[in-house]
């Protein structure tokens, strides 16, 4: 077995399958201080899980993947701390999330601020106590007996396929979990309880009401202090708070979570962005298309979504036929492309659509405009030949940087996600296609002189991609443009063109989203601008105020003139002082 560090490698003589913790403890203990696992098929596998022989990349604790493992372990520490002070609480689930972790508890009453402080102090104690963490596979019957007093864990155990389940233990605490985890609670370093809120079991409002505690943890104290500073700053400009104050949007209980209603102010902001988006796409040779919101399930069977994405789709019956509310726009664009026989002379073809899609998300993970169930995606699909790849990618990258710059985002990070070279069989497409696609993405970034990080194994199975993450004033990353190859759908739908040789060839398909979803992008803008929109986006561009009633008539004339010139104006002739107006 060979393990690759950031610098150098470690060769181990093992008898697989093997738990690397015991091997490394004896032969390379320094690795256990800085690393938390290995990458297999792009996923982190901890040192406590048996693995086969092979060549693997080690995952550093203080990396993005490693921090996710650390936060997962911190969630278990949180549950352990809660049970020490509230032994009648029922822990349900506690995952790592994008930034930090949470754990949901079934308790009699919400946690008070004083109780949260007590829990945080207990978490710090558990970290200091340095419990070794162990992993064990046990039979389902044993697991049901172990968790018999917790109906939530029992429900989960009964749904798990197979005869065994995995549990992780630290001190007196044991939890049902697939991992991955650190090997010792001490490695978590520094913890902080952030907030608590209500939630529902499995995100279903019809099920038991739970209490969710959010937390954050970092190996180094300075990292935690910096995060808390940013967290407190961000709370002041939460888009959900500003969205209400500025009368931008609502989400109504009567219609369901994750479904956004745009108020007039929000509609103006959205309209201005969409109008600008359309004009810029037409300038660059894109053709606008519109696709229906529903389609027969047959379409989603061909695309593979029914097989792999069903749990996130809305399905229904109409005239005894199965239909799906569309979760994405790609298949519709492919159908339009396939209405004609395409020649290499017709390519590239660029379609663009502000298409509304619907995806089921558990209510527990919904978050204002940033995580919703219905949203409008600024989708674009480019159909081209291999010879056109380099120019198309470069043009899309330039377009993406231009678009985010218009909105004031000057700082960003670029990530290039490629396939795992050790597990090429897990990815769709040929070696030639992957090599050409990855090379064109890399060349475009380097040609423009941008710094970037390569995420080996980070590509989705159907193609490599560029992710651009936007940085705001307090250092938070926001999802920005994505440029993604797709080697899967062209094969499933047989998307071809007639080449110069007269033969049919599989088209190269590039999916790109420059803003992402309008909902998420505007949610990010609200926080980025702190509510102070630039003039071209401001719902009210000019306010006409009167000092006394003598000026009312003139003020109304000015107001009407502004409106006639296309300026968004507001008239205030109330009998109030200027300061109040």
Strand-helix topology:
Elements: E1 2-4, E2 9-11, H1 20-27, H2 29-34, E3 35-40, E4 43-46, E5 55-60, H3 64-85, E6 90-91, E7 96-97, E8 100-106, H4 113-129, E9 133-139, H5 140-146, H6 151-159, E10 164-170, E11 173-176, E12 190-200, E13 209-218, H7 221-236, H8 239-245, E14 249-250, E15 261-262, H9 264-283, E16 287-288, E17 294-296, H10 297-303, H11 305-308, E18 314-318, E19 321-325, H12 330-337, E20 349-358, E21 374-384, H13 389-406, E22 412-418, H14 431-447, E23 453-456, E24 465-471, E25 477-486, H15 489-493, E26 496-498, E27 504-506, E28 508-517, H16 518-529, E29 542-545, H17 552-564, E30 569-572
Parallel strand pairs: 1-5, 16-20, 22-23, 29-30
Antiparallel strand pairs: 1-2, 3-4, 3-5, 6-8, 7-8, 8-13, 9-10, 10-11, 12-13, 14-15, 17-19, 18-19, 20-21, 21-28, 22-24, 24-25, 25-28, 26-27
Helix pairs in contact: 3-4, 8-16, 13-14
